[in-house]
Design a protein that fits this description.
- This protein is mainly α and 235 residues long.
- Helices cover 78% and strands 0% of the residues.
- The longest helix is centred in the C-terminal third of the chain and has 33 residues.
- The radius of gyration is 20 Å and the shape is globular.
Length: 235
């Protein structure tokens, strides 16, 4: 039998239950009509309980910020395991799940740099990490014809070029980073499942995931620089 929550954590759960239900309602709007609100809210409450149990107020992070991504992550994990959660639906939510994991890890570790310049660097880091999640999601689930028609020819060309760099950059990643990326984005496993295969805890696999995204961005920049040099030398 699991240990009961301490009074502080119980108070956090009780005072933020409506907040968890509100987050569940936001995600529920994009799900099929036959999905029960009670199921999504139950997953949200599970995430809330986990957040309350793990929350450390000394880190300087607001509980709502800390719990936000934990709650959403629990909801995504719940719908991923549901029998009505099809492969096509998983592909649609892949980017949201990945971006949520990145933001969750950041929220739990807290800001590391002070001042406007530090905040700008952190914002840039998060933006680039989420952009990497998006490109990986595109590559893992090729855009269908309807989606292709919905964007301009110029945007489609830019996406194709970025994905080409991405595929080549993946080949340059260290083995562990590549296994994390492939397992999470291309094999449909959760970060916890990928971490278990590598013998890593949930907190460690989140950090390895973030580092893998960083290494991927660096490899893509190297490839772009190499191509620019080749073009300049050919002129």
């Amino acid at each position: 039998m699991s240990n009961p929550l301490p009074p502080r954590a119980l108070e956090l759960v009780e005072t933020h239950r409506n907040y968890a239900h509100a987050l569940a309602g936001e995600i529920l709007q994009g799900l099929p009509s036959h999905v029960l609100r009670e199921d999504i809210e139950a997953a949200a409450e599970l995430g809330l309980v986990e957040a309350a149990a793990a929350f450390d107020p000394t880190r300087g992070v607001l509980f709502k910020t800390f719990a936000y991504y934990r709650i959403r992550g629990a909801i995504y994990d719940g719908i991923r395991k549901a029998t009505w959660f099809s492969k096509s639906m998983y592909d649609r939510y892949r980017f949201q799940m990945a971006a949520n994991d990145v933001m969750s890890d950041y929220a739990e570790t807290g800001a590391t740099e002070a001042g406007p310049e530090g905040a700008l660097r952190e914002a840039q880091f998060l933006t680039e990490s989420v952009a990497s999640c998006y490109l990986l999601s595109l590559e893992a689930h090729a855009i269908d014809q309807a989606d292709t028609n919905a964007v301009s020819a110029e945007q489609a060309l830019l996406d194709q070029e970025s994905r080409s760099y991405l595929r080549r950059a993946l080949e340059r990643l260290p083995e562990k980073s590549r296994r994390v990326i492939e397992g999470y984005y291309f094999e449909g496993r959760t970060l916890e499942e990928v971490g278990a295969g590598l013998g890593l805890s949930k907190s460690w696999i989140c950090r390895v995931h973030a580092k893998a995204l960083e290494s991927l961005r660096e490899a893509m920049l190297e490839l772009m620089g190499e191509q620019a040099t080749e073009i300049a030398g050919a002129r």
